[in-house]
Amino acid sequence: MAAPLPVTNDPDPTFAELIAGRPHIRMDARDGLMVEGVPLARIAAVVGTPAWVYSAGSLRRRTRALTGALGAAGLDASVHFAMKANDNLAVLALLHREGLGVDVVSEGELRLARAAGIPASRIVFSGVGKTERELRLALAEDIFQINAESAEEIGMISALATALGRTARVALRVNPDVDARTHAKITTGRAENKFGVAIDDALVLYARMAASPGIEAVGIATHIGSQITAGMAAYRTAYARLAEMVHAIRAVGLPILRVDCGGGLGITYRDEPAPMPEALAGAIKVTLGGLGLPVMLEPGRWIAGPAGLLLASVVIEKQGARRFVIADAAMNDLLRPSMYDAWHGILPISPIAHHAPLSPADVVGPVCETGDTFARGRALPALPAGELIAFLDAGAYGATMSSTYNARPLAPEVLVDGTRFAVVRDRQSYAALAHGQRIPDWIGA
Questions:
Q1: Active-site pick, 368, 431, 439, 445
Q2: CATH class assigned to 15-55+307-434
Q3: 61 known member of a binding site
Q4: Is 322 marked as a binding-site residue?
Q5: Is the pTM of this model over 0.90?
Q6: Which GO terms describe its biological process (predicted)?
Q7: Active site includes 261?
Q8: Is the dihedral of CA 198, 200, 203, 208 positive or negative?
Q9: Three-state DSSP state, 257
Q10: Which region among 259-273, 333-347, 356-370 has the lowest average model confidence (pLDDT)?
Q11: Domains of the chain: which residue ranges?
Q12: N or C: which end of the chain has fewer CB within 10 A?
């Protein structure tokens, strides 16, 4: 069971402030809250609730802002979207059209990337526990790069590649022992984290990797965490250590073709001072720009997070010692508040509700867990049964982390582009919940 969500004394952003900070969302005096040119009430009428809604315009705008910042800094950079943030095929296809590759962490993600039309030459495979089956697929597909995270994995890749008559392009993921000052569950660059190899061991392992049959050693990689909002200091420290590593590799005559900088750039959910991509590009240029090597980035949340929301309906308002707004969305849909104590903006869809009196409310779901709580003490208007609400900034680690807990079908996904929208993933049927299950004969009727 999750810890209770904290109640802060700082005032929450107002409805107007939440809308102003998200240019793809606006309030229409007649149609209510809109994503681009589409009323959310219209989407709810077509697909029901809960439902995920993504803005194509926001995805494009944020992608171009990141790639533009890298280009303006004079960096030879490629961007691979971290699929763990959002693996919807339509989203992936749109981002590929914008010039992005993908970073995958499983066989399933690799197969989805290929199904979305992303060529193997634009796929990077990360992750601390790749299986032999997954590595065989990566080798068979001849993907752009595998990020190896241990001496044991280097041995696995070498043996499999040799047996298959392939050459794997491999980068060594280095753990720089840098505290990114983010949530403990999403920091990945400290010495006690499971990811990568210790920086003190990296040169020896890189040399071993370069000498291994079936492997082309192409570079080094790092990733220090997710939702990093505490400025660029952690990035600069980590990348400076990578630069030292590049010099050490070159000093012993080993090849190195590129540096993988990872991702992790944070966004503003509530009032966090999220850094801009220009700041990240500057940190890369200062630390790695003089090496003469191309760099790679693997953002996920920064691109997709603000572009999506979870549309829900109020089931009932329950009055007692506390005011509870019970929504038809639950922790099985949006897990982040339960798992990370994460804050998400909550907006009523009705234009009338935006000018109604406010009072504190706990916004919860119907799942049989006290941890099924989205917000505590949130200032909201009266929300009778049937009223629509939107959980903001849910485009990353929303649908991908959802489950069918309490036998609740997965919610549909909708992509909005201007004045049009399309269902890009159907709501899961109840029949699908039981698909593949069977009762053995020996149990009896």
A1: 368
A2: mainly beta
A3: no
A4: no
A5: yes
A6: lysine biosynthetic process via diaminopimelate
A7: no
A8: negative
A9: coil
A10: 259-273
A11: 15-55+307-434, 73-301
A12: C
